Amino acid sequence: MATAASTYHEEHPGGITRWLFTTNHKDIGTLYLWLALIMFFVGGAMALIIRAELFQPGLQIVDPHFFNQMTTMHALIMVFGVVMPAFVGFANWQIPMMIGAPDMALPRMNNWSFWILPFAFTLLSSTLFMQGQGGAPAAGWTFYPPLTVQGGIGTDFAILSIHMLGISSVLGAINIIATILNMRAPGMTLMKMPLFVWTWLITAYLLLAVMPVLAGAVTMLLTDRHFGTSFFDAAGGGDPVLFQHVFWFFGHPEVYILILPAFGIASQIIPTFSRKPLFGNDSMVYATASIAFLSFLVWAHHMFTVGMPVGGMLFFMYATMLIAVPIGVKVFNWIATMWRGSMTFETPMLFAVAFVFLFTIGGLSGLMLAIVPADFQYHDTYFVVAHFHYALVSGSIFTIFAGAYYWLPKWTGHMYNETLGKWHFWLTVIAFNITFFPQHFLGLAGMPRRIPDYALQFTEFNQISTIGSFVLSAAQLLFLYIVVQTIRGGNKATTQVWEGAEGLEWTVPSPAPYHTFATPPKVS
Amino acid sequence: MSSIFPVSSDGLLRLISDVGLVLLPGLASADYGPSADWGLNLQRPVTEIARDILDLHNLILIICAIIFVVVFSLMFYALFAHRKSRGHKAATFHENSMLEVVWTIIPFAILVGMAIPSTATLLRMDDVTGSDMTVKITGYQWKWRYDYLDYNVGFFSVLSTPREQIENQADKGELYLLEVDNPLVLPVGKKVRFLLTANDVIHSWWVPQLGVKKDTVPGFINETWTRIDEPGTYRGQCAELCGKDHGFMPIVVKAVSDQEFAAWVQQQKELMAAADKTWGMEELMNRGKTVNNQCIACHRPTGQGVLGVFPAIAGSKIATGPIEEHLKIVMDGKPGTAMQAFAEQLNDLDIAAVVTYQRNAFGNNTGDLVQPSQVKGLRE
Fold first, then answer.
1. Residue A465 — φ and ψ, nearest 5°?
2. With an 8 Å Cβ cutoff, is B100 touching chain A?
3. Between A174 and B14, whose confidence is greater?
4. Which of B277, B271, B283, B287 lies closest to B153 in space, CA to CA?
5. Under a CB-based contact definition with an 8 Å cutoff, are residues B59 and B9 in contact?
6. Which of A42, A252, A393, A408 is most buried, with most CB under 10 Å away?
7. What stretches of B271-345 adopt beta strand conformation (E)?
8. Window B:295-354, CB contacts with A under 8 Å
């Protein structure tokens, strides 16, 4: 096969056509990661606009309709443009190497899965320039009707964009499943796979199950808006709450799609820097599968105040509380991995440890939200905003940073600057907590979500949160600098890179050759 | 539960909550208003349900905090003691089935413990039976309407914070964004049933101190209830994104004694029957200015409108021309634009008042006076 491959194209193509037409999993991984990094700054800028307006009571900077566009677009971009593409980028780079495969199962489809994204985000972002016709979507990333039906043309563009994003995700998921199930090296049974590969296998099934549901929901919105249907309109026999059910049936598994790969990355990094195998590898697999299964049974916990029969509320409360069990098992297993290890704290490990600590705060506030009577006070307040930022930023984003620092030496052949990495870590972690911890108090004190202006007693915590957000954003410029610097040069990385690193990717040279494992390795 | 333990589960909950309050002052909740700056906990409850919720919240928080401290003490110990720089050598163990079972079962048991009081409180919240009166709450973009179904009294409740404060041209009052023209007045100690719906998009009616939050869904009716224990004024906000002024449609509930409530109902009925009465200019102007708050979102507090988007009232042909045209556009709206038909939303007195106001304010000075009976006549 190797000879057939090398007559097919130049060994190392160059120029813009390389990036447009590549079918190489490493190149495609790089493309996804760069897209995610660019969108991170776009979404981050929107967050700064939000936080700047919220620095003081009163309307200073933007009008309420534009503010709603910012909250909506910030979320859409961070969820669909940063976290998901970043994890797919890691999947592309790492899965083939970790299982000893030469590439993904469907390399050409892999290319298309990526290239849909820049067009989808151009479509979505273009709505910001349509302010005369209502601007970008402004009904929240959750898009509830009837409010969404009032939206201008930006909403229709967003619906099309979401369809494109969904197609990209579904094609990517198919590719990942086909690769993992069919292309593992001989001897690598499923239970011998690295946990990152396991978490991505399960995530891919979640994507296949729920992205079509989102597509259905937004299509029903489109037809309600323009083609005379009344799915969500009581006057025509429909129900606005139907949308919420369909959306959250997608939406809840979606948040597990956003976190399961993070669990996988943490499960690679913590053993490496503890110089000790992952504790309870089999339990970790079962726990991940349980989380994925349970994620389909809890969607209505996003809707407790909508007017649900008490039996429904009780079921969803119990099911949601139950998810705490497998997640707790994972946290205990990570700590047991560290326990009596021989730890060092390079930047990847710093981010991984911070993830375990801070994500658990997000998990515990999630448990509080599951308690229905209490949720009646928390729902649609800043308590929820604090919860999901603890889950998504210290959960997904920190593990993305951790994985980037961990694997950059393998990808580029250079060590990143450890001192700068540590600066990035501490600035980020401290600023993150300054930004989001006070938001718990704001929610409890009574501040609703998605408001551009607030009553006077919310001023102090909002000011602290805004200051934190500006420091947090500035710290990410340091990350950009570190990444560019590492690509361009730095101390030479060895093959193994990290003393405690284990796995097939640490057996190929650094930087990893353009084609690896053209012949599959034997795994014992 | 009470047959097994010497204390009822509610009593136990309250005990834990009170102990927590003593040990950790931060667990005390604050009233609404400027004294609530730096508030760390839920607002002070004034109903039994709100009190139950606060107790439940404190209990869950304490349990979560204890678990968090125990688990992460272990992790931080490991981070310090089990590090290479201290010479610690790595062990090789990597699984323990008994441990996995133990740390699955114990959390599960803790969750069951949390679920029991939560279920009890939820079942209490769900019981709407035995109410003394019913109020229908309708969410509008961007105001609330309250209709007392037992008394045939109804009115809108609109944010009354002056626009100048929002736009930073005047100092903000203490109750900035938490004040309305017509609060919901309720009697203390009576079980009030709420029927909730909306006129346009989904809103949510939330008053933290009452422990009540319920979405208002257009075309559907939701139900909840409250029984307020002490007189006072309780403030809340809309809790579901409903468009541009989602942050500007607060809720104010004024709980009063039975006698005061009866007197207030009587007063409201007289106002509603106002159509047959003849009203003076000053009364109409005062009332009209308040009603005009519903117009300023588009037409602006100065009546200047927004160039190219919302027409001005100041100096407009409609506000200075024939009265009937002015009445017609307020009552029927202008199809194809954002100008709603207010005939169903406003009563005769309010329409007469706001039209009178608009014809005399903003420099219009027509001297016109519109009686509610004229509005009533147009409806037929």
1. -60, -40
2. yes
3. A174
4. B271
5. no
6. A408
7. none
8. none
Tell me the average pLDDT of chain A: 96
pLDDT of residue B5: 45
Question: Which pLDDT band holds residue B4 (cuts at 50, 70, 90)?
Answer: very low
Say whether residue A152 is in contact with chain B using an 8 A CB cutoff. no
Quick check: A321 and B36 CB within 8 A? no
Contact across the interface for A307 and B214, Cβ inside 8 Å: yes
Residues A368-424 have pLDDT tens digits of 999 999 999 999 999 999 999 999 999 999 999 999 999 999 999 999 999 999 999
Quick check: A364 and B67 CB within 8 A? Answer: yes
Given B38, B95, B247, which is nearest A460 (Cβ)?
B38
Q: Which chain B residues are within 8 Å of A233, Cβ to Cβ?
A: 219
**If contacts are CB pairs under 8 Å, which of residues 195-234 in chain A contact chain B?**
233-234
> What letter would DSSP give residue B236?
E
Classify B226 as helix, strand or coil. Answer: strand
In the chain, the amino acid numbered B230 is E
Looking at CA atoms only, how far is residue A112 from chain B in angstroms? 36
Question: What was the pLDDT predicted at B25?
Answer: 47
Angle between helices A25-53 and A64-76 (to 10 degrees): 150
How much is the mean pLDDT over chain B?
Answer: 89
pLDDT digits (tens, 9 = 90+) for A294-351: 999 999 999 999 999 999 999 999 999 999 999 999 999 999 999 999 999 999 999 9
Task: Specify the pTM.
Answer: 0.90
In this predicted structure, what is the pLDDT of residue A6? 45
A410-420: string of b/e by CB count within 10 Å (b at 16+)?
bbbbbbbbeeb
Show which of residues 53-82 on chain B sit within 8 Å of chain A, judged by CB atoms: 53, 56-57, 60-61, 64, 67-68, 71-72, 74-75, 78-79, 82
- Long-range contacts for A223-227 (Cβ within 8 Å, ≥24 apart)? A224/A145, A224/A149, A225/A148, A225/A149, A225/A151, A225/A155, A225/A156, A226/A156
> Closest residue of B to A141, CA-based?
B241
Is B359's pLDDT higher than 50?
A: yes
Question: Count of CB atoms within 10 A of residue A124's CB?
Answer: 24
Structure tokens at A249: 């049936």
**A342 and B40: CB-CB below 8 Å?**
no
| H/E run at residue A89 | helix A84-99
Residue B107 to residue A324, Cβ atoms within 8 A: yes
